[in-house]
Amino acid sequence: MKKSFFVLATLLAFSCSSDSEDIAGNEENTAPIIANQQFQIAEHAPSETGVGRVIATDANEDELMFILNDSEDFILDEVTGNITVGPNLQLDFESQTTYELSVSVFDGEALADATITINVTDINEFDELSDEQKELVAHFKHLTLFQDNTSPTQDVMRKWQEPMKLFLLGTFDNSARTMVQEVIADYNRLTDTGSFDISLVTNETEANAKLFLGTKASVESVFPAMYEQIRNLNVDGFAVSSFANDTYFSSEIWISNGGQAICRHELGHALGLGHSNLCDGENASVMCSSIRPQNQLLGIEEKVISYFYHEAMPTGLNENLIQDQLSNLILLEDF
């Protein structure tokens, strides 16, 4: 009897241990929980800037893995859930104010999904510029709004939208024609930020702009309306451009000699540039009201022209809109 009882007790102890292991092994896994979440970040934030941390929970206290399901250039740390700005992402409030990311969280067995919304906040871009960049904005406004005291100021900037097709009139020999081609090439190099360019045409009927080389007196027979404006002025060149909806569609340009400086100056006017105020010393701008043969466009003015004819710079902007648009464009280009 004693022997049988001992065996039975041993079997009972073994059975109890086996039942306990079955219960633990059959514990049910529950999926992690993640809710839709929102974050915000300022536009123009640089790469690696922190956006926020995605929060998820798991009743089983399993280790969680975060997964970004979108191609948007944000970085999601799979362990911490931290979101940062990716290396190629330009955050521009004027272009896109919201990003929606599909994020999953995985506990090793089950997935849960959520939408993460990132709101881009607007900033004052001008305040973010360097002193040199602010000088560029100021000179841009000076040239494109004709703010020099030698000419009437414009309320808005105006420029060409279609390419300029230039026809030459007057006494253009091979040397003078080559000079014009060189000036055109320089302007085309600066305006390749958009779709505008200048080309010479051989048929006057194709032209939307005309450049006349000759004496002041001879202007009367070529551009009669222009002559009425300049007949009593002491000038060596002049340009008149017609516009509609703040967009130039034709130009008449006169130069009295075959020098590059006067051609560059008047063609600059035809493109929508006023007189420069950077006129001190030997390196004065070719856009000053009084110029010398050696004068050229200054480096800051080449930048002005590139931004002026940039595809992202619309015509018809007033002074405040120019500052906003140009400051934003500078920061984007500086990315």
From TrEMBL:
Keywords: Calcium, Cell adhesion, Membrane, Repeat, Transmembrane, Transmembrane helix
GO biological process: homophilic cell adhesion via plasma membrane adhesion molecules
Broad class of where this protein is predominantly found: membrane
Alphabetized Gene3D superfamilies for the sequence: Cadherins, Collagenase (Catalytic Domain)
Domain of life: Bacteria
PROSITE patterns: CADHERIN_2, PROKAR_LIPOPROTEIN
Subcellular compartments: Membrane
Domain Cadherin: 33-140
Gene Ontology CC entries for this record: desmosome; membrane
Ranges in a coiled coil: none
GO molecular function terms noted in the UniProt entry: calcium ion binding; metallopeptidase activity
Record bears the keyword Flavoprotein: no
CDD domains cross-referenced by the UniProt entry: Cadherin_repeat
Entry keyword Transcription regulation: no
Name this protein carries in UniProt: Cadherin domain-containing protein
Species of the source: Croceitalea dokdonensis DOKDO 023
Taxonomy of the source species: Bacteria, Pseudomonadati, Bacteroidota, Flavobacteriia, Flavobacteriales
